[in-house]
UniProtKB/TrEMBL annotation, chains A, B:
Keywords (A to Z) from UniProt: DNA-binding, Transcription, Transcription regulation
Keyword DNA-binding: yes
GO MF annotations, alphabetized: DNA binding; DNA-binding transcription factor activity
Protein name, entry field: MarR family transcriptional regulator
Pfam families given in the database record: MarR_2 (PF12802)
Residue ranges of every copy of the HTH marR-type domain listed in the record: 7-140
Keyword S-adenosyl-L-methionine in record: no
Organism, as annotated: Mesobaculum littorinae
Amino acid sequence: MSDFDLRTFLPYLLNQAAEETSLGFSRVYKDRYGMLRTEWRVLFHLGRYGDMTASEICRLAKMHKTKISRAVSALEEKRFVAGRESGTDRRREILTLLPQGRRAFDDLVGVAERHDRDLTANLSSGERAVLIDCLQRLAGFDKFPD
Amino acid sequence: MSDFDLRTFLPYLLNQAAEETSLGFSRVYKDRYGMLRTEWRVLFHLGRYGDMTASEICRLAKMHKTKISRAVSALEEKRFVAGRESGTDRRREILTLLPQGRRAFDDLVGVAERHDRDLTANLSSGERAVLIDCLQRLAGFDKFPD
DNA sequence: GCTTGTTGGTTACAAAAGCAACTTTTACCA
DNA sequence: TGGTAAAAGTTGCTTTTGTAACCAACAAGC
């Protein structure tokens, strides 16, 4: 055999933890609003950081632009999001939350906060701090503090 | 807006970290052996934990059985894996690594070990210990120490 | 002005994942 | 012993993702 352990191999471990922890939350936005993860992310970025274009979300969330494009279409279909032209550059479309989208966002942020509290409930505050810090470094958030 | 921060929300953070950290490694098994992540995982389980059936891998890796089924087919195609009948239960097929598969496994374990060392290079050993421990708990590895 | 390159975004096609139905074999139990 | 349920795997179909090509608008250089 070998003594290499999958259960301490970071890419695997992170992936399993990510899958496990997002299960409960993804069920909520899926069941309650028929959204996909990509849609939730776009919704979130608009709700949290204000109006922006697809490519800004692209850069912030490190999602591919085709995913964004499709997520935006779906959110427009649901009347959660609308786009308006940028005055200066007719290629750019500035995206905004519509009232429906804002309501969904507010609702889901509440769910997310509770979910996050539950997840970290059995972690000490010291552990939590180290965990978040390490994860942010691994995710590269320290390099791109956009 | 809202003061909820995506960059500390565990499901998101874990997902970004997982994506970021697995990028380099997945390129290796993809380019070098034309494997998918599912195939690497099956290969790994057989190489590390010895011969087993699809459903055992299923349970250990928490992967859906159709993914395993297809990954096994692909690995058989590559002559990395072969299945033999279990004597006692003709439904079960016990999977084994073939020499080619063993070589690929050995090679990839080396790559994985180096990759993991690189990833944790800027973490103190204390941080690393807390990180691994928290992730294992979040992934549920403490509950199913199979 | 023209031409070349770049950026924002969409679309078409191929690969992969998810889900449900199905086959075969085994286990249980009245 | 027969009948129902459950487990191991596979297959077909749908949804989602990935990739590359593409269009339109802008920018820069000459």
